TrEMBL record:
This is Endonuclease MutS2. Belongs to the DNA mismatch repair MutS family. MutS2 subfamily. It comes from the Bacteria. Homodimer. Binds to stalled ribosomes, contacting rRNA. Its EC number is 3.1.-.-, 3.6.4.-. ATP binds at residues 337-344. InterPro entries: DNA_mismatch_repair_MutS_C (IPR000432), DNA_mismatch_repair_MutS_core (IPR007696), DNA_mismatch_repair_MutS_sf (IPR036187), MutS (IPR045076), MutS2 (IPR005747), P-loop_NTPase (IPR027417), Smr_dom (IPR002625), Smr_dom_sf (IPR036063). The keyword Coiled coil applies. GO terms for molecular function: ATP binding; ATP hydrolysis activity; ATP-dependent DNA damage sensor activity; endonuclease activity; mismatched DNA binding; ribosomal large subunit binding; rRNA binding.
Length: 784
């Protein structure tokens, strides 16, 4: 239930006017002006979705519009009852049908993105035959085309020929020697639809014919000579034939229009709804508005108004954003604070945005806003004084509030401006408290403004009520328009009066006359505001520092990641280089042995083999590994000054600090500083003084290298190190080729083996094993 009075007080009609201004179609314009909030949740959600879809279209195609669409429903209804329409009317209908056709086509193209608007466009009919029929006969300007029909074209051709014949004969008549002296002007003219010549009045009896007109001066008479009378009659008959054919064409076209009159009516209605949605889309883009989420309150999800960065839609860029949540912890909000501080604007913003949402309109607030469905929105705002009704300001307010209290129900919103004002403060305050208690008992969401100190205390001590205030800058003595929940605000009436130019002596006198208790309360509120501002400024500083530290920490982690990647790259490069050197040395040894064998010198051969065996024995014993410091047990306590191993970074560091509250450790490694949890650290053994940089070392061990390596059942991550170690051993053992068994399975292991072999420095070539050696289940590697 929404009363027109409440709509007017909250300025909803002005919103309708603004959105109507974006409409391109008269019918949608009227639809917008008649718009009212709905209490049907499905209808509201559908309207909001239509708005969002329209905005999407306009963001992609800003110029999209139904411009040119005219409400031709009345004309089509006239055609339906047998009225013949004029050519200009038919041209207007054709243009409108063209707009409908393009609108339907556009919605069909965008059906996936705008399903609701597409569904509406499905109600638009297809009038291709009618549109073509009209366009074939009538120009866009509304003139009947010469070839509107074959018969009309023939008639008009005959008319042109007959006209030429008549004019030519009359010209000859005018210039003949027998009649020349009787002619006033040598021209052929038309009078009353007949061809005539201008004859001097005194000679009219000399020209045998019919007088059709006389000039204003009476000096000239216009005569149709009998000599051209038959030709004139023939021309007139052709004109009658033309008129009849035109009437026939217009009648047929009108009948076509009349046959689809009801369909055209439905199509125009659908187009109006789409244009209305487009108007809302334009409003949304222009005013940075969004569709608020709306829901039907339940026991588990009660009515809570959540407005985020909300602005009054009529204030434009001057509006200060308002964020508020009402209904979760309290149902009644009492706003206090300075005059001109924004209290009334806040009331109107809350009430108006709720009305707009229930009308399916986007609101100037962020997408985080969420509003409950209200069965009624009531308002008492402004001066209710009425001379005609013999109402004072207070009486006017009470009359309106009485209406509200009678009609209000649980699922309602009530906004009350300056509750209890314009009367004795004690009685007004008592009445205000009683009204708020009545609304609270009904669990009605209520927002009220006041200057009464008693009401501030009442809101503070009463469960379900909450104070709020608009801040007042104690330094500049100006309102900040920032709403703070939980804190009452001082009226700052004297400060406001001073700001508006009231003489200083009056201001000083007013302060002196102010009751001690009231003055102390105002001073306390002012001090609280100043302290609040100081804390807010401090919070901003801390927030900036926190952001700076987070940014630095992120940068350090990025630098650490780069160092780890560089470390791994260096180790891999060193390892690859050593492996290549080993392979080259092995190759040189092979060549040396071959050369010695060719020399047939037993002593040289023996000596070379001894050298080769010695080198091979050392190579067979070496594998490469990275050394890390010895670490103590994981649960051993760590203190400031201890050396620790950073598990993630794989570097050693020194503990420089411990946060007892968070359990985090501050550690340093050279120029780097980190803050880590205990799980990321390991304490190094007490004997370890400083971790050496990771280095390559050799561990000697003996090993027998077989002719094959079985990798069946191995994990993908284990294959490369196993294959690499095996090939190093095979090379040092001087094996010419080896067999790698990987099995068939999914082929994944085979693919890994062959990919690694294709780029390994010790592998010359590879191929599938012969069938009797495993076929595709094994790969033969030939070593360099």
């Amino acid at each position: 239930m929404v009363f027109e009075k409440d709509l007017s007080l909250l300025e909803f009609p002005k919103i309708r006017d603004i959105i109507a201004g974006y409409c391109a179609f008269s019918r949608s314009h009227a639809l917008t002006l008649a718009l009212e909030p709905s209490t049907a949740i499905d209808q509201i959600k559908a309207r909001l979705e239509e708005s969002a879809e329209a905005r999407r279209i306009l963001e992609l195609e800003p110029g999209f519009s139904v411009n040119g669409l005219v409400d031709v429903s009345k004309q089509s209804r006239l055609a339906a009852i047998g009225r013949t329409l004029e050519p200009k009317t038919l041209a207007e209908i054709s243009r409108s049908l063209g707009v409908l056709r393009r609108l339907k086509s556009k919605m069909s193209e965008a059906a996936y993105d705008v399903p609701r608007l597409y569904a509406i466009s499905s109600e638009i009919g297809v009038y291709g035959h009618l549109e073509k029929s009209i366009d074939k006969a009538i120009s866009p300007e509304g003139d009947l085309l010469p070839d509107a029909s074959a018969k009309l074209a023939i008639i008009r051709e005959r008319l042109r020929a007959k006209r030429s014949e008549v004019v030519e004969k009359l010209q000859n008549y005018i210039h003949s020697d027998a009649t020349r002296r009787y002619i006033q002007e040598p021209i052929v003219t038309e009078r009353e639809g007949r061809f005539a010549i201008a004859v001097k009045a005194e000679y009219k009896g000399e020209i045998r014919g019919i007088v059709h007109d006389v000039s204003n001066s009476g000096a000239t008479v216009f005569v149709e000579p009998f000599a051209t009378l038959d030709l004139g009659n023939e021309f007139k008959e052709l004109e009658i034939d033309e008129i009849r054919e035109i009437e026939r064409i217009l009648s047929e076209l009108s009948k076509l229009v009349g046959s689809v009159a009801s369909s055209i009516e439905s199509s125009l209605e659908a187009a109006a709804r789409i244009d209305f949605a487009l108007a809302k889309g334009h409003y949304s883009i222009r005013h940075k508005a969004h569709e608020a989420a709306i829901y039907e309150p339940t026991a588990s999800d009660p009515a809570v108004i959540k407005l985020d960065e909300a602005r009054h839609p009529l204030l434009g860029s001057a509006a200060v954003p308002l964020s508020i949540e009402l209904g979760r912890d309290f149902s009644v909000l009492v706003i206090t604070g300075p005059n001109t501080g924004g209290k009334t604007v806040a009331l109107k913003t809350i009430g108006l945005l709720c009305l707009m949402t229930q009308a399916g309109l986007p609101i100037p607030a962020s997408e985080k806003s969420r509003l409950p469905l209200f069965q009624g929105v009531f308002a008492d705002i402004g001066d209710e004084q009425s001379v005609q009704a013999a109402l004072s300001t207070f009486s006017g307010h009470m009359s309106n509030i009485a209406r509200i209290l009678i009609n209000v129900q649980r699922a309602s919103l009530v906004v009350l401006d300056e509750l209890g004002a314009s009367t004795d403060p004690q009685e007004g305050s008592a009445l205000a408290r009683a009204i708020l208690m009545h609304l609270k008992a009904k669990n009605v969401l209520t927002v009220a403004t006041s200057h009464y100190t008693d009401l501030k205390v009442f809101a503070h001590v009463t469960p379900g009520l909450q104070n709020a205030s608009f801040d007042f800058d104690p330094e500049t003595l100006t309102p900040t328009y920032h709403l703070t929940l939980g804190m009452p605000g001082g009226s700052n009436a004297i400060a406001t009066a001073a700001r508006f130019g009231v003489p200083p002596d009056v201001i000083d006198n007013a302060r002196g006359l102010l009751a001690e208790g009231a003055r102390q309360l105002e001073e306390l509120l002012t001090e609280l505001q100043a302290e609040k501002k100081r804390l807010e400024d401090l919070d901003k500083i801390l927030s900036r520092q926190k952001e700076s530290l987070q940014s630095q920490n992120k940068a350090l982690l990025g630098e650490l990641k780069n160092l780890r990647e560089q470390r791994q790259a260096i180790l891999q490069q060193a390892r690859d280089s050593i492996v290549e050197e080993v392979a080259a040395l092995q190759k040189d040894l092979k060549l040396a042995r071959s050369a010695l064998d060719r020399e047939k010198s037993q002593a040289a051969i023996t000596n070379a083999r001894e050298v080769s065996d010695l080198v091979r024995s050392h190579l067979k014993k070496g594998i490469w590994q990275s050394q890390t410091p010895m670490v103590s047990k994981e649960d051993e306590p760590i203190s400031v000054g201890d050396r620790v191993w950073l598990k993630e970074a794989e570097i050693e560091a020194v503990v420089t600090g411990i946060n007892a509250k968070t359990g985090q450790f501050e550690v340093s490694s050279g120029p780097l500083r980190f803050i880590l949890g205990r799980e990321g650290l390991s304490k190094t053994a007490a004997t370890t003084k400083a971790a050496a940089a990771p280095k390559v070392s050799v561990r000697f061990m003996g090993r027998n290298i077989g002719l094959e390596l079985d990798l069946r059942g191995k994990r993908a991550d284990d294959i490369e190190p196993l294959l690499d170690e095996y090939l190093n051993g095979a090379a040092t053992a001087n094996l010419p080729e080896v067999r790698i068994i990987h099995g068939f399975g999914t082929g994944a292991v085979r693919s890994i083996v062959r990919e690694l072999s294709s780029r390994h420095p010790l592998v010359a070539s590879f191929h599938s094993a012969p069938r009797d050696q495993g076929g595709d289940g094994a790969t033969i590697l030939r070593l360099k």
